[in-house]
Design brief:
alpha+beta; Jelly Rolls; 4 domains
C-alpha cells in the first residue's frame, strides 16, 4: 500500500479527514517508518557495493582508509574475492600488544577492519607539492651559448606544473627522435599546467648567463592531494548567496592534524589548517536552501591558482553535505584490490503520494502506529496506548517473518533432541526421526 492509501485508510478509520489531519497522518507514517527501518536489520534494506581499493592513486587507500559509497549507511560485512574480512573495534588495536601499526607488518591482504566515523571528504598532504621535492633537472647549466634544464623519465599522460621565472628560448619535449614545442608555451612568471604527451625528456633552453629559475612539479591524479599551506574555501556559484539580503550562513565541522573545529559564517568561508600541513577533513556542512550550488575548493598557496580544484558540491535544495561511511583495513593492501561491502542502505522518507515502504509486509504495523499517533494528537491517550500495544506486537511478528519467509538456514530439532550418533542403538544408528 502506498503513502496515499495508508493515509486515507488511517484518516477514514479514525474519522479525522480534514486536510490538516491528512498532512499530520502522512508525517506520522513517514516518521514511524523511519523508526521501524532503523530498529532492525531488514533484508530489504541490504545492498552490496563493489569498491576498488587503489593505494597507488588514492591517498585515502594508501593510508589504509576506504570510503564506501553513499548507499552504505551501516557496514554489515566485508570481504575480498578470496576471503572474508572480520570486524574488530578500533580500540582493540590500542589496548593490546598488537603489531598492526608496525611498519614491517602493516601491509598485506586485509584480514580485519574497523569502522571509522563517517565524513564528507579528506584532503591529505602530498610530497609532490613540497618545494623541497620539486623535480630537479637532470642537467642545468651552460651548454655552449645557452643554458639547458632537462627533465628525464617524465610519465606520459601525467600532469605537471611548470614555471620559468625569466626569459627563455625554447621549451620542448621529445616524441621519438623529434623535438616538439610545448603547446601552449609557458608564460614567464606564471604556472603552466600540461599533460606530458610522451615519456620525455622535457627540455628548457635558456640564454647564456640565465639568472632565473625553472620549477617543475608533478601534480596529483585526484583532488585529495594538496601541499603545505593549503586551504579549503566553501562558496556558492551564485552571487545572490554571497551578498545582499540573500547572504547565506553555513555551519562546518572539520579537523586538521591537531584539532577539531566547528565554524559558522557567511560565504565564502575559508578553512585554514593551524598546523600548516594541508590536511583537511570535513565532517559535515549544514546550509539552508540556496540559490546556487555550494562548492568546496582546495587551494594551494605554493602553486597559486594552478592548483585550485573542486573537492565537493552540495546542490541548492540539499541541506547538508553527503556523509560517507569509512573503514580502516588491517593490514592495508599495497596493491589494487576489489572490496565487497555488505551494508544497510540509508533511510528514504515517505514523502510522495505513490511511494511505498521499502520493507515488505509493513502495512499493518504502520497503520497501528499511525492510528495511535492520530488518537494521541486528538488527546485520546488511553485509546492511543492500546494502539501502540497492538503495533508493538505486530512489529515483533514482522521481525519473525523476516527469518521464516525469507532465505535463511533452517534446522529441524526433535522434541527429544537429535540423540547420540556414536552411542545410539545399532538398529537405528544414524537414522533419527
Amino acid at each position: 500500500m502506498n503513502l496515499a492509501g495508508l493515509t486515507n485508510y488511517v484518516c477514514t478509520k479514525s474519522q479525522l479527514v480534514e486536510a490538516d489531519d491528512q498532512a499530520a497522518c502522512a508525517l506520522f507514517l513517514s516518521k514511524r517508518y523511519e523508526l521501524i527501518y532503523n530498529a532492525y536489520l531488514w533484508k530489504d534494506s541490504l545492498a552490496i557495493s563493489e569498491v576498488l581499493y587503489d593505494p597507488v592513486n588514492n591517498l585515502d587507500n594508501a593510508d589504509g582508509i576506504l570510503y564506501l559509497p553513499q548507499q552504505v549507511d551501516r557496514v554489515v560485512g566485508l570481504r575480498t574475492c578470496d576471503q572474508s574480512v572480520k570486524i574488530a573495534g578500533l580500540e582493540h588495536y590500542f589496548r593490546i600488544d598488537y603489531d598492526a601499526f608496525n611498519k614491517w607488518a602493516m601491509y598485506g591482504s586485509p584480514t580485519e577492519f574497523s569502522i571509522l566515523p563517517p565524513d564528507w571528504f579528506e584532503v591529505r598532504p602530498s610530497s609532490n607539492f613540497a618545494t623541497s621535492n620539486t623535480i630537479a633537472p637532470s642537467s642545468y647549466g651552460p651548454s655552449g651559448p645557452v643554458w639547458i634544464a632537462e627533465y628525464q623519465n617524465l610519465i606520459a599522460g601525467q600532469s605537471y606544473a611548470l614555471m620559468i621565472t625569466a626569459e627563455y628560448q625554447r621549451a620542448y619535449y621529445y616524441n621519438g627522435d623529434n623535438q616538439v614545442n610545448l603547446n601552449p608555451l609557458p608564460t614567464v612568471g606564471s604556472w603552466l599546467v600540461f599533460s606530458m604527451p610522451s615519456t620525455g625528456p622535457l627540455v628548457i633552453v635558456c640564454p647564456s648567463g640565465y639568472l632565473g629559475s625553472v620549477v617543475l612539479v608533478k601534480l596529483p591524479a585526484t583532488t585529495q592531494s594538496t601541499g603545505p599551506g593549503a586551504t579549503l574555501t566553501i562558496t556558492s556559484d551564485n552571487q545572490a548567496d554571497i551578498t545582499g539580503s540573500g547572504a547565506v550562513q553555513i555551519k562546518v565541522t572539520w579537523r586538521d592534524k591537531t584539532d577539531r573545529y566547528t565554524v559558522t559564517g557567511g560565504l565564502p568561508l575559508t578553512l585554514t589548517p593551524v598546523d600548516g600541513q594541508g590536511q583537511i577533513e570535513v565532517e559535515s556542512v549544514f546550509k539552508p536552501v540556496t540559490t546556487g550550488n555550494l562548492l568546496a575548493t582546495v587551494y594551494n598557496s605554493y602553486l597559486g591558482s594552478v592548483f585550485s580544484q573542486q573537492a565537493g558540491l552540495i546542490a541548492p535544495a540539499v541541506l547538508r553535505s553527503p556523509s560517507y561511511q569509512r573503514i580502516r583495513l588491517f593490514p592495508k593492501p599495497s596493491t589494487q584490490k576489489y572490496i565487497w561491502a555488505l551494508g544497510k542502505k540509508p533511510f528514504t522518507p515517505l514523502n510522495f503520494a505513490s511511494e511505498e515502504p521499502g520493507i515488505r509486509n509493513l502495512d499493518n504495523c504502520l497503520i497501528a502506529y499511525a492510528m495511535g499517533d492520530m488518537l494521541e494528537r486528538s488527546r485520546q491517550y488511553g485509546k492511543a496506548q492500546g494502539q501502540y500495544t497492538e503495533a508493538t506486537a505486530l512489529l515483533s511478528e514482522l521481525a519473525k517473518l523476516e527469518t521464516i519467509q525469507a532465505a535463511n538456514n533452517s534446522r529441524f530439532i526433535p522434541d527429544s533432541g537429535y540423540g547420540d550418533a556414536f552411542f545410539a542403538p545399532s538398529s537405528n544408528r544414524g537414522i533419527w526421526f
